[in-house]
Amino acid sequence: MTALPNHGVARSQYGQLSPATPTGPAAIVFPMKAVSVLSLLFLVPLLAVAEAVQLSDRRILQTDLAEARLVSELDGYAIVAGRTCIDCDENTSIYIHRISPRNNGEEDAPAAERYTYPGRYVDYMSKELVEKTRLFYGRCYENQPALLWLSEYREEDGWVKSEYLIVFGEDGLEHRYNRNRQPSVYYIENEQCRELPGIEAETEP
């Protein structure tokens, strides 16, 4: 797994934060010699077959994701789940796309950062449980539209709690990270704050 809420952060092993890196398909350069197309298929994971999602006003959001699906719309943003490749080790992640008016009824999704999909993650080698993450969306912070991740990560000295919050404010997205505490847990009882069901998955290599 490589994304905690990857807002401008990408998650390294077991939830540690590190500077974000682009998540789109990388260019692949091959040596200048004859290589069969069939052999390349076994060497390179298949890139995403871009899928579109329909917004609440029936406009179409064109994404660059495989297995894309709309989770919610919050204050002019589409919350989308998907992957950038198929038949690869990448887990499903959460992406945030700005929605802007278009006359032709379609939206082109710009490059988006990658965030953790909720669930229980085991280490891909040891199969030991190393992460437990919950994701809430809606009015999850002082009655403001927000995304809220409540996570626990296994470290050498035990489990560590953390919170990652994105508030959809007047000036855009506001990111907040808290290690060893989860102050926004008090807001998840709001009936307009919904939890996205988690998955059972392995961390990415």
Structural write-up:
The protein has one helix at 37-43; strands spanning 9-11, 17-19, 46-47, 52-54, 60-62, 66-74, 77-83, 85-86, 93-98, 106-108, 114-116, 119-122, 129-141, 144-155, 158-169, 172-179, 193-196, 199-202. By secondary structure, it is mostly beta strands. It contains one helix and 18 strands. The longest helix has 7 residues, at 37-43. The radius of gyration is 18 Å and the shape is flat.
Task: Give a quick rundown of the structure.
Helices cover 3% and strands 49% of the residues. With 205 residues, it is mainly beta. The termini are close together.
Any key phrases for this structure?
205 residues, mainly beta, 7-stranded mixed beta sheet, 4-stranded antiparallel beta sheet, 1 helix, 3% helix, flat
Secondary structure blueprint with pairings:
Elements: E1 9-11, E2 17-19, H1 37-43, E3 46-47, E4 52-54, E5 60-62, E6 66-74, E7 77-83, E8 85-86, E9 93-98, E10 106-108, E11 114-116, E12 119-122, E13 129-141, E14 144-155, E15 158-169, E16 172-179, E17 193-196, E18 199-202
Parallel strand pairs: 5-10, 12-18
Antiparallel strand pairs: 1-2, 3-8, 4-5, 6-7, 7-9, 9-11, 12-13, 13-14, 13-17, 14-15, 15-16
Order of helices and strands: EEHEEEEEEEEEEEEEEEE
β-strand number? 18
What value does the average pLDDT take? 79
**Count of alpha/pi helices:** 1
Radius of gyration: 18 Å
Biggest β-sheet description: 7 strands, mixed
Structural class by sheet pairing and helices = mainly beta
| Percent range of helical residues | under 10%
Distance between the termini: 7 Å
Share of residues in strands: over 45%
| Low-confidence blocks of residues | 5-46
